[in-house]
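Q:
My hope is that you can spare some time for a protein that puzzles me. I hope you can help me see how the letters and the tokens relate. Thank you; the sequence and its tokens follow:
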Amino acid sequence: MKRILLLFLMLTTTACFAQETEKDQEHSEEVIHHDAGEEGQREEHHNFKHSIAFMLGHTHISEGRDAAGDTKWLAVPSFAIDYNYRFGEKWSVGLHNDIIIESFIVERHLSGGEEEILEREYPVASLVMIGHKFTQHLAGFAGAGAEFAKGENFFMYRFGIEAGWHLNDPSWELLVGINYDIRIDAYDIWNLNFGVAKQF
């Protein structure tokens, strides 16, 4: 009877040990598979070359004028569509386009120190931008282009910083950006943008 009990205990212990070993092996395989999946996602994300961003923003103009002609700080709505192509691990080139969806009056500063009042109707800006990624979530941009509107067009420079966070789908990114624009012989603005980017 003692031998049967001892044999029963040995078989039970062996069965339990085998079951635990099998569970550990399955868990290890799941971890390996999970890690491989994450690595695949990271690799897939790393291979994205193109991105299109849709941004909503507020453009701030310190040289604005009200209807009475008094100087006024203006905050007007805008939206942007930005395309970027990544040509290196940290570098990109893109075409950034935005429109201010409101007409406004601004004080124009000429190169000779003169000033004049200028009315802008729904100006559209288009710029070629070079981007550099400083960290995983932070990038800087600089470039040049032009602002187009009824009456007169202006050559311009832009400098910006953008922060981005990937969503559950690694091809989508949430973006927050701030830009400073210098319109030659005209006026300066800065704008704050929020939006999403699709990478492919």
Q: What stands out?
A: The two ends are 71 Å apart (CA to CA). The longest strand covers residues 50-65. Confidence is low (pLDDT under 50) at residues 1-45.
